[in-house]
Amino acid sequence: MRPKDSAIAASPIAVPGRVRPTPSARGGLVLAALGVTAFSLTFPATAWALEGLGPWTATCARLVLAALVAGCCLAAARARPPGRRHWAGLVTVATGVVIGFPLLTTLALTTSTTSHAAVVTGLLPLTTACYAALRTGVRPPPLFWAAAVAGAAVVATFTVAESGGPPTTGDAYLFAALLVCAAAYGEGARLAAVMPGWQVISWALVLCLPLSLPGLGAALLAEPADLTTRSAAGLLWVAVGSQLLGLVVWYRGLARAGTARASQLQLAQPLLTLAWSAALLGEDLTPATAVAALAVVACITATQRAGAPRRPPGRRLEDT
């Protein structure tokens, strides 16, 4: 199937009062859900990596490892470099999910718990939907926005309350990570409609290798490293699982199901992160988690059943 064909198949069939997604769109939601599951392990895995590495070393090492794997995949597939018109979008992807989000969240985790940092992913779906609407001109219906805002409010209130208190110094990093990541998600989804999703993140990673490789060398000289089994496992996951494989299925899912609609599945990510944090880091969970989970599921369901988005006239599918 050509990329344009998949973009056409992702358009929902509108009927009064509900949306019946096409098989391609449903498959996109499954891929997006797999991406969310991979992302939910990012904060706990980063906390593991920080047990043996400094924040700059951990960030640069994950980028170098992911870029080397991505470069090998591109070489094995004999992938042709993207056209000139796609490089601006790839720079946005690289700035957001390759450099900005990993670095900013890693710095935040040096002063914040994973539970507190999860507030970023609670607000990210709404921010991503807003960026996509502004960038492409596609306008989801009012019910979608109401459910998206409600879901963001539930997750933000829950994660801040559970993390125990007022904003920390790491919140500035988290807020900046939110903005750059939303832009990278929107641009990556747009590019995944005209080129294979795995190539979007792979080219973005390779694009950053000239910066991340010397950055790793400088970080190793400045920060003491004491790599343990746990820190190595955490580094391996954030490099290959979160930074590469998770984004491959995520971008493909956004392209097939629509950025605004599929991004709302990420409302469940903070709750999954809390569950992983309890299992892997020994952080406490409270009965409020179940209440928040039910509220989030209700909001996600509402966003998926909202009416079909309104596309601007004359806009090409690959631009949306």
Which features characterize this protein?
320 residues, mainly alpha, two-stranded antiparallel sheet, 14 helices, disordered N terminus, disordered C terminus
Number of separate structural domains: 1
Q: Estimate the mean pLDDT confidence.
A: 82
User: How large is the radius of gyration?
Assistant: 19 Å
* Low-confidence segments: 1-19, 315-320
Structural class: mainly alpha
Instruction: List how many beta strands DSSP finds.
Output: 2
Our estimate of the beta-strand percent is under 5%
Fold and architecture overview:
It is a single chain. By secondary structure, this protein is mainly alpha-helical. The protein has one domain (21-319). Helices cover 74% and strands 2% of the residues. It contains 14 helices and two strands; from the N terminus they run αββααααααααααααα. It has helices spanning 3-9, 23-40, 42-49, 55-77, 87-108, 114-117, 119-136, 142-163, 170-192, 197-222, 229-257, 259-263, 269-281, 288-305; strands at residues 13-15, 18-20. A two-stranded antiparallel sheet has the order 1-2. A hairpin with a 2-residue loop joins strand 1 (13-15) and strand 2. Helix 2 (23-40) packs antiparallel against helix 11. The longest helix has 29 residues, at 229-257. Residues 1-19 and 315-320 have low confidence and may be disordered.
